[in-house]
Amino acid sequence: MRKKTRQLLAAGMAFVMTWSSFGMTAPVYAETVGTGQTEEALKASDSNAEDSRARNVASDADAGKAPEESVVPETKTAQKEQIALFAGGIIEGTGTVSDPYLIADADDWKAVMSKENQTYNRYGNLQGHIALSSDIDLSGETWDAENLNGKTFDGRGHKISGIGQPLFETVNGTVKNLVISGVSIEETNAGTPVGAIAGKTSKTVNIQNCYVRGKLSNTSYAVGGLVGDVSGGTTSVEIKNCVVDAKIINSGDINKKSLAGGLIGNIPEFGTTIRIEQCITLGTVETDIGRGCGGLVGGQNKTVTINRCAALQETVKTSGYSAYVGRIFGYGGNYVNGEKNYAYAGMSGGANGTFAAYEAVNGEDVSREDCLKADFWNNTIGWGNDANWEIADEQFPILKTSGISPVVDLTDGQLPVYLGGAKIQLSDPANVRWDETVNGKAVWDEVENADGYQVQLYKDSVVLGSEKTVSGQTSYDFTSEIKETGSYTFKVKAIGNENYETSAGVKSAAYNFTAQSLADVKTAAENTLKKMSVTNGTTAAEILQAVTCVITNDSISAAWSEESGFTLTKATDGIEPGDNGGITGTITLTLRKEGVADETENLTVDLTILPKFTVTFKSGSETASGTAPTWESKMEGTTVTLPENPFTVYEKMFSGWKDSDGKVYSAGSAYKMPRRNVTFTAMWEHDVWDGSTKTEPKRDDNRYYLISTGAELAWFQGGTHAIGKAKLVCDIDLGYHDFVPISNSVAEFDGCGHTIHGLKAVNNGVYAGLFSNVSGACLIKDLTIKDARVKPASERSETEIGILMSAPSETVTIENCHISGSIIGSGNAYFAGGLIGHVRQSANVKIELCSADVRITGTAGNGFAGGLIGYIDGTAEINNSYAVVDMDVDYINYAGGLVGAGNNAEISNSYAAGKSLTGKWAGGTVSGIANNGTITNSISIFPEMTSVNRISQGGTLSGNYGFVGTTARNSTGKVLTPEESNIGPDQIYGADASADQLRSQKFYQSTLGWDFENVWTMPSAESGYKFPVLKGQKESMIPTLSLDMDPKVISVSLDQQQATIYPKGSLKLTATVESKNGASRDVKWVSSDLAAVHVTDDGTVAVHKDAAAGTYTVTAVSQFDKSKQAYSEITVDNSEHTVNIVRENTTNSPDAEIEVYRSKEDAEGTSGTYLVESGKGTADSPITFRARAGSEVYLKFKNLNAEDVVNHIEVTDGDGKTFEAELCNIDPIIGYFTMPCSNAEVKVKYATDITPYQYTWFVGQDWSTWGTTATYTTTSWANENHIGSLEVTNIINGKQFEVFDVKSISKYKGVTITPKEVPNKESLKENGQYYVRNDSNGNPILYVYLDGPGMISVNIEVKNDLNASYNIVQKAENSRYYTLDKTTAKAGDTITATLTEAGVQWLKDNPTENAVFTYEGGLHVVLFPPRFKQQADGSWTASLTMPTCDIVTNVIFGAKKKAKIEGTDKEFTYDGNQHRIDEDVRASWGEYDISEDLRNQYEVIYSGINGTDYNSKVAPADAGTYKCTVKISDDNTDYECDPITLTLTIKKTAMKTPDTPTAAGIGANTITLNPPTTFTDGTQIPELCGFEYRLGDGEWQDSAVFAGLLPDTDYHFYVRVKEGRNTEASEVSGVLDARTKTASEPVDPDPDKPDPDNPNPDKPNPDNPNPDKPNPDNPNPSKPGTSSGSSDDSSDSGEPAAATRNHSEGTWKKDQTGWWYELPGGRYVSGSYVADTVSGAQSEQVAWRRIDGAWWAFGGDGYLKTRWIWDAAIGKWYYVDEKRGMLTGWYQDPQDGKWYYLDLATGEMLTGWRQIPGWGYMYLNPFAEAQTWFYDEASKMWIYDTENTRRPYGSLYMNEKTPDGYFVDENGVWEEN
Hints:
It is a single chain. 6% of the residues lie in helices and 40% in strands. Strand 126 and strand 127 (1511-1512) form a beta hairpin. The protein has a 25-stranded mixed β-sheet that branches. It has a 20-stranded parallel β-sheet that branches. It is mainly beta. Helix 1 packs across helix 5 (73-87) and helix 9 (518-531) crosses helix 10 (540-548). The two termini are 108 Å apart.
């Protein structure tokens, strides 16, 4: 039903599409087409019916055939194509596990396996899960054997029969519940493995509940019943509950892969887990001399797990060695783990009867009888109760399906004959019949398990001829034996073998045959000739032979007619469109009859010869090699098979042949020749390895493998083949498919400068990389590996990973190799390196001119990682190489920028770089280069590290440097500081190199001696990489690392943001500075009120004893970046707070009372009684009072029981902090504490005679303003001598010890003792005696005698040391900036500091900052530290007065003093001199006037305003208005200020009155003036002055020409000097009276018609009307400069001509853009850009300037404008020559060839009718109907459109009529006649 549904659907779709194409034409018999009949069947005629041989044969060939008139061949073809389109789209299912694609027949199978249908199969990988829905027969079928691709193939108990190739090329996934019968695979191609299910495996494979029967053979590679080869990259293979009954043969030689096994042929040596359980193998396994022959597995040396399996073959044998054959496993050795494996006791074979001498590979014996016993299968082998098997006595176990319902039997339980099974009767052949299309051909259905068939022919029930035996076919053609009329039958039977009995014979129906007549022959011959394809080479004999072949009647013959025989007209060959040829003639058919006359029949021959056309093949690539196929011409309509690709294009993969129509065909495709010549072009696509194909590469004459594809490189992976010597001949792409490292011997691998892309290396055992544990001497050179990924399997621990090579064990040299990529571990990367993982102990590695840009993750906690090498056990030399490292690991043992660890590394001229080493704290030892070894002239560039081993942990070091900004942190983030002794070129930290040095070639070349001529180079700026790269490195391999190396402070924070302190109190603040790249972490502590709250250099905050209550701010300011600060609010508290005293219990001393006092004297009663409060501290006798913060509170205890003491006095403040009060007296007991800045609770506890306070020293001393003056130690007198001591250990400098003042001595619960001094220690015998002496260091010691518990109260008295000399030291971090004139001084002495070169340079580099000299010591504060000032000798010094303490001096670079400046606006009149605004500026600092100090210390920027064009620091001289921005110069080291703005005005100067002008020319309608040359006072008018002219009281004009005047009329003219840049317009000159000439005719001329006075006076040479016109061959001379009056270039010196008549104040300059004119002070002449008020568009306004006697135009960008110039301000055209400036007079433009006239006075281009002096009236085009000149932005010039035929604007009319009807001659002059 499903099949029918599919056919109807396909037919329906074809019908719809055909109906759409042809409309309502003849009916389409879609259902007939849909049944799968061929086109030939649809075209079948009745010739069979007419053929006498077909009479009476039962056939339905014509059933359902379409009427002849309905057959439209094109339509049928279209229908067929439509069916093909839909045939693969009807397969049921969605491809999921629960809804797989269901395969019902062979067509479905081929559709799913076809690469053409990407729904199911994409790039050779199945896209969905599949299952069988019925048995399918694949006999005679072929398909694309593809990759199961991790999917499931469920046979569901169905059978696939007749396969001649493996189901899959590669199995990766699950195959189950499948029967494969009638297998017949014979493989002869080298390197192709064979198995019924798959040739090879990948990744994870699971085969279960499968049954295979048949024969499999291979001639050169592995063969197995299920799988041929378990390939490299396979993770695991599990085979369970399978049966194979097959004849398996491998006839290959002893090569490693010529193996055979009942289940698997070959398995890899490493990396794959193989497990086989509960399987049975039957049949035979044979090899010739291969490496392994086994009943279950061929071999070889790899351990597998096999449990409870039975190898029951009749024979397992080899012609080779006994070590290569075993009953279970075909390779001698202990390679089988597992139990209960059995082999047939009667198995023959081995190697001459001998199997390998290992029990595990042969199994235990099982007899033929036991094979039929249930006990053996249930208990002995152990399959009992397994639902996959049906086990019973007297039968073989029956295998069943698993996981489906209902359960289906996969085997029948019959034993083979050699195991005692009975032969099975073969079935009789079915469907025995005569073929419907070939009359006389016997056919029948296949009989399963038959070895062949016997066929006997009968005529009229009588045996005819001998019995025929056939094998491998189910038909026999008796045509040649059936000649005579009669009734024919045949009988066929299936032939048995050792296991099957021959069947009974089955007889066919009758085939009634009648002998041919002449008519029959003629008809058959005509049909044959119709089908015959003839050519120009077809002969008469061939035509006759074709006719003769249809004659079956021996009495009939054929011959060419003698009258009209064979005639051939040739068709054309290779000519388009081509002409047909033909063969014509008559063949005579003769029937011989005995005794009567012969009969004849004429056969007319008229055959068309179609023309031939050429077929050409092209490579399609200029880089292709190979020879193109050469074909003879092919006839139109001929179907040809396109050849395989003969070309090679490196890095490309052939994708097909493209014909002349652009359609692409694959090689091997059928192609029907059109009626034209055809060219096929090879098509190419990027060659990416598919992950499975392995192709042996070719070798050159020197035995180098030449590797050009990923498949060729993959040939060597996993150690399959020894690579020896190899070369990359092009870049290759491995497509990021799993690649097993190349592990066999590698002598040389030459990358030849090529790149391997897409490497995804997986591990082979513990090794991972392109190469693994390569043995033997090896050279790898000139290779690039880009963006590789190396990822070992997570279950593999302690892997050894190198992207290039994992673990060399002998001599390896690596040259000019460049690697980038990632090592991706999962906590298992034990040795990891960008190039090499582990240099083994026996290895000697040399790395030269190499680089690695590598990211490493997932290292083992005890692992090693390095940018180039992970770990060195042997020796390694690294020269001229580098690594960029991103090591983001959680745990590491050793890590290094180049080498992780190892003592035998020699590294020189190399570097390592990265953002951080490691990316985060990972434990272990981290080194910037390597942890040990010999390291010279190398560099570490890591802004962040997790150790201070910037170069190494140790070793022999010299000439090494590291980034000065490297910040090292420990696991808590704390910044680590290297020891000074470890810094230097030969130390583990290396010497410092700045970021600028590290980015400078000079540093590497000069300091380190690196070779930048042959080895190194600096990368291009475009790359973004800043450090050296190797010259042999590709641009694409330059790292993308971008390091932020600028020092900066990120933040400053304090451990306390708020604190409260009482006067004389102190606390310690700790600042944390987060910085990077070497920025200083020093802070400057600043107090908001130094008189009240002082803070020392270490953050100690002390409050003055008289400080007022309130909140103060202490700020920690970064010394590097003063914008980074942190604040702490210090609250000074001297207010009163409440104290509450309670006792902890009432048991002891219930009557004890406590009295509160303000001083010890009050408590002792010696100063008068000032009791504050008293009580017991109980609920009924509370003690509550108030005390000022910082004051001392004394507690006096009374009425204690005799046996009790005060056990402790605990004070708790408002923050919950607790502290113990101290005792200052014993009898009575007095304790005291300092009042905190909060309320407080005091807990008092009494106890019985315990002595925490019984031996007490109470030591007092003098306090300075800020704290104590002495330190001391005490010892108790609780010893046998009863002597205690007090030793003064230190007294602050400036003080000296004076005396011990023993205030009191008292015994516990005793009377007070009077102190008494004795002369020596030996005299201390009585209570109260004391003795004072100095120890060997001069420290005073007090000894006191007291024979019991008590208290000694002593004051340490000090006095001033007038002769004290105090120490002066420099703060270490800034000591390089200054020197001191002394190291010690007395109080009051002057200390002078002088800046070093580094200090002076700091001031130069930071002009806005000052340097001040300050110090820290004790609690002294320098409120106003002196600034360094430059002295007369050039030195910079500052001085301080020595205080009374030791000090630490420092130089602090800080902000300058903020001054204020003021000034007034100024006004001048232009006098040619510069005018400054800052001469009268006043300056002040606070109340001080510092104007004189700052004279000439200002920086002023003058900017033109109100139309003045100027912007410079140079004071202006020209007239104009200037905005002046004034500030103190940055060069001033003492002061800075906010800028002020003032206005400077320079007014234009008045000009003198010029003389009266003179007339230059007078006509009837025009008068031209000459300007005057002198003023009225006789002085010369400067050349640069311009003039304006006026007629009478009219408007002033620039032109000296006045036109349109009346003839014979008096006019009055005036002139004045035109307003200039720095001058006002002059007064008006005297009047010039002039009269126009009389007109030539009395009548007034038409105003629109010219009326020339002299139309043709002295006509100039028309070929050169302007002798000054420029040379058209050199329209752009090299520079401007020559005046317009000269064109002589002979004196051209490359500089503008010297000024001759004016004062030129500037200089011509030129760059690649053009010329400009530079004015004094850096200014230049420039035009401007003006915005249109409506559109907003910008337009350029040129600026004109007269220079050296010529006028020049300058654009908005300041560059000289040349050629045609449009002055937008006045709407006029001008022409500026680059050599001579603005032109006047005639000008012929070389671009359009036209003449233009430029006004003699103004230079503007004239238009319309003009009377030109010396010529007459001429007409210059006053309008343009279309634009002919266009502005070119690139050249910034006007360009003529040469394609335009329109007349340019302004061009001269010549030899033609003007638009108003006047004729002008060949010179353009109006001729009146």
